[in-house]
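forwarding from the other thread:

> can someone predict this with adenosine-5'-diphosphate?

sure thing
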Amino acid sequence: MGVIELRNIHKEYNNTEIIKGVNISIESGEFVSIVGPSGSGKSTLMYIADGIEQPTSGEVLIQGENINKLKTNELDNKRCSTLGFVFQFFNLVDNLTVRENIILPAVMSSRKKSEINEQLERLVEITGLKNKLNAFPGELSGGQQQRVAIARALINKPEIIFADEPTGNLDSKTGNEIMELLLEINKTEKATVVQVTHNNEMALMGSRVITIKDGLVLEDRYL
Ligand SMILES: Nc1ncnc2c1ncn2[C@@H]1O[C@H](COP(=O)(O)OP(=O)(O)O)[C@@H](O)[C@H]1O
Ligand SMILES: [Mg+2]
């Protein structure tokens, strides 16, 4: 069984079916790119896989566990310890410093201070944010803000990372650097990465491309 199993997922909003029966199985260590037209349901699918949204029907299994059957606090714990989510629009807390933003999920899950600092140091190294730790998000470029968001998603050493168009609001050079960062994390940390992208070149940098159209899997291709 895969580390992520989406089984016959349906999702309705206001009686309109957005996701129409999606089956996807992802093995540990894969780097999957989700592509497809705007409005086809890619973000909705990511939110369902991450447990941010509930499917109308179907099952989401993360590491063999049906996350839709978990109590709210159990799901929160699972999301905090196992899953990292990177949003298209960074979603940083404006009045917290870079350091505070990054360690927020670790503080919320009451991790040991020494452990948090150790991982923070590594991430700061990987993301190149060393001299920005005391800055506020508003003082950073888009690319730097997205690095902070990625570091925040990784502070609890998640086994699975979801990234919804992580380079969508960045220039192509910065976008490529963010892509390299995700690939690096996939390789060195053995994290499973699922990203949504509009960029064909970036989609082809991973190990598998899944095309979503009108709420269904149109194509599922290993590279
Ligand atoms: N919370 C919501 N309420 C109602 N409709 C929604 C909601 N979220 C998404 N949709 C609709 O679902 C469809 C798919 O959206 P989305 O998953 O964001 O697509 P994509 O990420 O592929 O662009 C769109 O038609 C969008 O308007
Ligand atoms: Mg989207």
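The domain at 4-222 is CATH 3.40.50.300 (Rossmann fold). thats all i got for now
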